[in-house]
Structures are given as structure tokens and as C-alpha cells.
Amino acid sequence: MPLTWEQFYAENPPPSDLEQTRHKVENFCRKHLDHGSRIVLITSGGTTVPLEHHTVRFVDNFSAGTRGSASAEYFLEIGYSVIFLYRLKSIEPYLRHVAGAKFLDMLEVDESSENPTISVKSSEVQQILPVLRKYKAAQESQKFLQVGFTTLSDYLWLLKTTCEFLPSFGSRAMLYLAAAVSDFYVPATQMPTHKIQSQDGAPTIQLDLVPKVLQPLVSLWVPDAFVISFKLETDENILIKKARGALSKYKHKIVLANLMDTRRSRVVAVTPDDQTEIILTEEQTQQGLEIEKCIVDYLKEEHTKFIVGSTSQ
Ligand code: 9Z3
């Protein structure tokens, strides 16, 4: 029998800095509640499932973090306050445009004087400037908060803790659950403390089912919020059926269904009585349009209808 969500939290300890994060999230929410703005909690990246307490090996879930980080930029652009709950070292908003060697290639060094100077190559200014402007605007508005996780258990604790501060936004809160969350894990009580030794032979690792926290999240933690989850599959034949199954089980508002191979160009927004294809053509991709922009525009409209519907009741 899988654990209930209550048992999961009782058996898996919170991250050591949970209280600091709680304060940060509380302050952030309090500040933006005053201004009446909409808020979105975006989850992004994959969770890890450690095989040892002093973790050398772990099972990972697929997600680069592109969906979440691109969406965070578009939500900020249209005025939402954004809490970005993301897998540490996965792709981050703004930085994604200039990460790694790409960034170093944009710079040039002038060593002609005693004090060398570094500047952005003039050929790169047009590319970096819009990103930098948007990044600075997000920083100045103080509407962007990043919270990092690595393991499944940390993710679930941080998700629950963040949800404590969203009910005061009522229907103006959106949850955009794009993180790839493991369905299986090794319970803390069954995990060896130290690195598994090969001299002991091939290990048999028993994975338990992770309780579905979408259930308490929708019904108890943020009952008035606009909750969107993602459904990732690799088989087209079961995608919509699984999305509908999740909707009828958890009773949230929309499931964004995507296949791993086509996730950059096609997402189906499944609602209890409808489905809308969000598609990016080859031409649009070449023009630099991202599907996350289309998803966020669609959700903004749906969220508006939801808020209007909730306040008129
Ligand atoms: C998604 O389906 C996301 O769209 C992707 C984005 C992870 C495919 P990337 O980060 O990819 O841009 O590389 N997220 C949800 C994945 C997931 O694990 N969903 C669970 C499920 O399908 C429910 S929470 O059962």
C-alpha cells in the first residue's frame, strides 16, 4: 500500500532551511498581496530520488526546465508575481538566453592598457539587450522569487509550504505545475546511510509509490486557486485519456498534455468538457516564437474568466 500524503510528510524530513524559505515566501506574498496583483507558482525541472542518505547515486526525472523558465518570463511580462520553484542547476529564467560558453563568447577583452576591460561584443548587444532589460525590470519590480530544490522530498515540502501563503490571493493565485515529479521513491527509513558498495553484489532496489499531492493541494491547500498541471507521456494513444483521468480525479482546472518528443511545438489544454491544441508552426519557431508564450497567453485569458466566475458567485 502506498503511503498517504500525511504519512509521507511524517516519514520524510523537511529540508534543513525550510523555515528560512517559509519566511521568504511569506514576505514575498505579503508584499504583492497589497498591490492586488495576480500570483503564479511555477514548478520547474525534475526531482531526484536518492538511493543513499549520503547521496552518491540517485534516480532523476526528465526535465531540462525550459518550460518552467520560459513561462516564468512570460508571466512576469504580463504582470504576474512569480514564485519559481525549480530544480537547482536546471534552466533559469533570463539566464537561459546567455548560459555557459554562449555567454563567454559574447564578451571581448581589451588588454591594451594596464587595466584590462571586458565588454559585450557590439555584434551581440542586440541579442543581450532585450534579455537584460527584462531581467532588470523583473529585479526592480521585486515580483520574482526563486526557490530551489533537488530531491523529491524537498520539492514536496517546499510545494506544501509555498501553498500556505497562496489562499489569501483567492482565485487570483495560479499554480502552474510543470516540474517532472517522480512517481516512485525509496522511503527514508529504507535507505542505506552510506554509499552502496559494489562488493556486496548487485543491489535490489525497491521503489515505493509516491502519494499524489495534487489531491490535497487542490482540495485542501489552495481550494480557490486556478490549478494547472502538466501530463507528460511518450505514447500519443494514452495522452488525452490520462489527462482526462487526472482532471476527473483531482478536480483541478486544466491539464496541459504533452508528448516528450513534440513538447516544444504541441501542447493540448484539456479541460473537463473541452480540449484546445496549442501548436507552434515551423515558421513561428524560426521567427523566435516560443510555445510557452502561447501557453501563457491562453492561460491568462482562462484565468481571467475563472476570476470573474469566482467573484460573481
Ligand atoms: C511536463 O510535462 C513539462 O511540460 C516537461 C517540460 C517536463 C515535459 P522541459 O522542462 O520539459 O522544458 O525540458 N511536466 C510534467 C511532467 C510530469 O511529471 N507530470 C506528472 C505526470 O505526467 C504529473 S505531475 O503524471
UniProtKB/TrEMBL annotation:
Species lineage: Eukaryota, Metazoa, Ecdysozoa, Arthropoda, Hexapoda
InterPro entries: CoaB-like_sf, DNA/pantothenate-metab_flavo_C
Gene Ontology molecular functions: ligase activity
Tagged with keyword DNA-binding: no
Gene3D superfamilies in the cross-refs: CoaB-like
Residues in DNA/pantothenate metabolism flavoprotein C-terminal domain copies: 173-286
Annotated Pfam families: DFP (PF04127)
Biological-process GO terms, alphabetical: coenzyme A biosynthetic process
UniProt KW Ligase keyword: yes
Name listed for the protein in its UniProt record: Phosphopantothenate--cysteine ligase
Superkingdom of origin: Eukaryota
Source organism of this protein record: Frankliniella fusca
Alphabetically ordered keywords of this record: Ligase
Protein family according to the UniProt entry: Belongs to the PPC synthetase family.
